[in-house]
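One thing: mind reviewing this one?
=====
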Amino acid sequence: MISTFNFREKNQLILQMCAAVKAFKMKLKLFRNQLSKGEMCHFPTCAQRIPQHKHAELGEKYAKRMNLLTEEFDRRLILSKDDDIQLKLIEDPFSVDPEEVPGDLQLEVNELQSSAIYRNKHRESSLWDFYKSLDDEKYKNLIEVALKTFSIFGSTYICEQTFSIMNMNKNKQRSSLTDDHLEDIMKISHFKYDPRI
């Protein structure tokens, strides 16, 4: 029914998380509209257990609950228009109107959108690689905005991984472990090294 999105995934960008929240809100709206009509195609267990003649009545009741949930999402998870434009710009700089972006980025976006080479690179590579490939001098402001966007803490993965490693290593059986040793263990556990064997 509802596809889950793992917010605790490694190397998660804020762009992916915002897209997942938007998709979930759209699903809630779809569910609400269908339930208010008594349609239970996305709720097969309810459709089986509730008699057909009560679908409309109970569907309306559940639709009100969905409405409350949607309102709560809207109240808590709001992006300003500027933030939304910035996320769209970084995710796909070729689909935004240059007049909608901040003034210091307009010429760079215009220049970028006219480049077939960069358009192909954007289509064929990851966002990280695309922004690495941009000319540092020509697209300085755009690269800076991309780096700021990429650095938004998009995942709790790193924090949870760190606390798990600390808990595994600093326990009753290893009570003589000092803070210096723990710091060394933490460095080793987060170091990305692929041995060439």
Residues 60 and 131 are 48 Å apart (CA to CA).
